[in-house]
User: What shape does this take?
Amino acid sequence: MTSADIARPETLVVPVGDPAVPARAGRLADAGPAVVDRSGWPLIDSISLVIPVYHEEGNLPELHRRLSIVLAKLDLPYEIIYVDDGSKDGTWRVISELAELDEHILALRHRRNFGKARALSHGFAAATGSAVVTMDGDLQDAPDELPRFIDTLNEGYDLASGWKQKRQDPLGKTFPSKFFNWTVRRVSGVQLHDFNCGFKAYRRDVTHAIRLYGELHRFTPVLAYAEGFKIAEVSVKHHPRTWGESKYGWSRLVKGFLDLLTVAFLTKYRQRPMHLFGLPGLASLLIGAVIGLVLTFERIALDNQIGTRPLLMLAVLLVVIGAQFFGLGLLGEFLAHGSNPPADDPHDAMRATIRIDGRRSLNASA
Assistant: This one.
């Protein structure tokens, strides 16, 4: 590093950006190099908003107006990515009209309603900002809160998750949500108050590291935490819906708990499935073997008939079940091994490196 690399005593200018993702002219192409503070955290230099919408034609004009005001005050390059998840009303027409007036808008339209997780996944793939902010299109989250999320990322966090402290929803929605959040905290170990809040801000490497499908959008903090990212919670004001109706009912609670089992497996046992299946398999084998030895002793030493005893069937059943659990564990280990080839580029899992970039091979000639 030369003295030309030093911008001023308290900051260091370094180039950033994924060379595989070209910047788009007119929005984020002029973001320039990122500024890194003394702690080594890159400051946010551009913003991508990803907003999944479904039947929100009445909310979009006001949402976009308020977002544009807030983003103009932030004075950072930005883009707004609307993902129409198969709306059958005039949502896409409104997005198209807004896009004609504002070059910052990008838009994706699904052929049908695929769900919020897939909408977010497609929005993440299109985003190019160093910060990716998600929010719902129903205006229950205030766009004015956006700067606080960016400030939280600039403090050194990788994900800032919203917390609706005072929800403007009926008890039929708030009570199940509190119970669901309590359960997720206990199972995952991630101490957030509100996993369901759609208002979140991510550093872009977080959105590259997590995979969303099914209904896993509620668990992005859990998935990010499992990958080693730092998470913070930002309290936000929650406003009552003024147009349209909620897209979620009681069925979301049931689906949420089923998805929690999926997330618990993915985050805790995806790389070591034998630890999940091996323990019950071992217990079943040991119990079945002990019962079998006792019955064998009775048959040989005491000359008792055991062929018709239910205990013999139980012993055989336990041994078979134990063997099946071990087989599942071994199959899971085989799949995990095959999905983890030797890493050519370790940077996907690294927060920082020393003398790794640009180094020569030890066998290279001088």
